[in-house]
């Protein structure tokens, strides 16, 4: 089976006014189709740089990056990105935002409307299709962004701390919705987060990165059933033990 994502010997160095900063060091990573892989580590360890390189927003200084066997040379429709803050177009309706990527790909109007309707139902926004983005709460705007990304049917979904700016209750609700969407859609997810608990609850694997220059120092499989609800998983002995391993790895490198 061709890996969904493969990084081989990836280094990245930023050039700034005060000199160069190495963000990633000899990073190797393989993600198989359907996996949900979370990346945790201290601020500045290169988590977001890693995600942006896979997205094609940033070119690696050295090494190779492949998605579905093709070398990444820039952004592409098969890699959808969900940012920390919703990047919705204020002049479009909620449905118009979800349809936008499809419209750019010249999908016929009837088809893109039906696709938007389906994904708005999946994220619980069917009743807000005609609303303006500013009429939605922060959590609802983030669900709209997730629907917009999924509507283009990318094979890989890249998520950069998508719930980091939300209150605790909204965050827990969207975690449950994301897990259900992942189980139903069978997409490959690469998820960056600062929360150990969030990483362990949502993922099939958790990667821990070292302080800058970042490299993977722990790659931990998570044994959980996608059908399990998060309330059950929060008290699962296996999940709690995995969280302690991840937390110990993060703590050990500070």
Automatic annotation (TrEMBL):
<feature type="domain" description="ABC transporter">
    <location>
        <begin position="5"/>
        <end position="236"/>
    </location>
</feature>
<dbReference type="InterPro" id="IPR003593">
    <property type="entry name" value="AAA+_ATPase"/>
</dbReference>
<keyword id="KW-0813">Transport</keyword>
<dbReference type="InterPro" id="IPR027417">
    <property type="entry name" value="P-loop_NTPase"/>
</dbReference>
<protein>
    <submittedName>
        <fullName>ABC transporter ATP-binding protein</fullName>
    </submittedName>
</protein>
<dbReference type="GO" id="GO:0005524">
    <property type="term" value="F:ATP binding"/>
</dbReference>
<dbReference type="InterPro" id="IPR050166">
    <property type="entry name" value="ABC_transporter_ATP-bind"/>
</dbReference>
<dbReference type="InterPro" id="IPR003439">
    <property type="entry name" value="ABC_transporter-like_ATP-bd"/>
</dbReference>
<keyword id="KW-0067">ATP-binding</keyword>
<keyword id="KW-0547">Nucleotide-binding</keyword>
<dbReference type="Pfam" id="PF00005">
    <property type="entry name" value="ABC_tran"/>
</dbReference>
């Amino acid at each position: 089976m061709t890996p969904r994502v493969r990084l081989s010997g990836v280094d990245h160095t930023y050039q700034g006014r005060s000199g160069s900063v190495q963000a990633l060091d000899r990073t190797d990573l393989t993600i198989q189709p359907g996996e949900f892989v979370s990346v945790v580590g201290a601020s500045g360890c290169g988590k977001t740089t890693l995600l942006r390189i896979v997205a094609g927003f940033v070119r690696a200084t050295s090494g190779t990056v492949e998605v579905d066997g093709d070398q990444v040379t820039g952004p592409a429709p098969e890699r959808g990105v969900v940012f920390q803050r919703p990047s919705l177009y204020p002049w479009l309706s909620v449905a118009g935002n979800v349809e936008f990527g499809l419209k750019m790909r010249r999908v016929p109007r009837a088809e893109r409307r039906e696709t938007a309707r389906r994904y708005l139902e999946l994220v619980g926004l069917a009743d807000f299709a005609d609303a303006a983005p500013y009429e939605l709460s922060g959590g609802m705007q983030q669900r709209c962004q997730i629907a917009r990304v999924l509507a283009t049917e990318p094979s890989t979904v890249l998520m950069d701390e998508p719930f980091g700016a939300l209150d605790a209750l909204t965050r827990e609700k969207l975690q449950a919705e994301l897990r259900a969407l992942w189980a139903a859609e069978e997409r490959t997810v690469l998820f960056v987060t600062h929360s150990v608990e969030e990483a362990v609850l949502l993922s099939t694997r958790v990667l821990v990165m070292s302080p800058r220059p970042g490299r993977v120092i722990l790659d931990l499989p998570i044994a959980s059933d996608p059908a399990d609800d998060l309330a059950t998983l929060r008290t699962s002995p296996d999940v709690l033990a995995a969280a302690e391993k991840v937390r110990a790895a993060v703590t050990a490198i500070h």
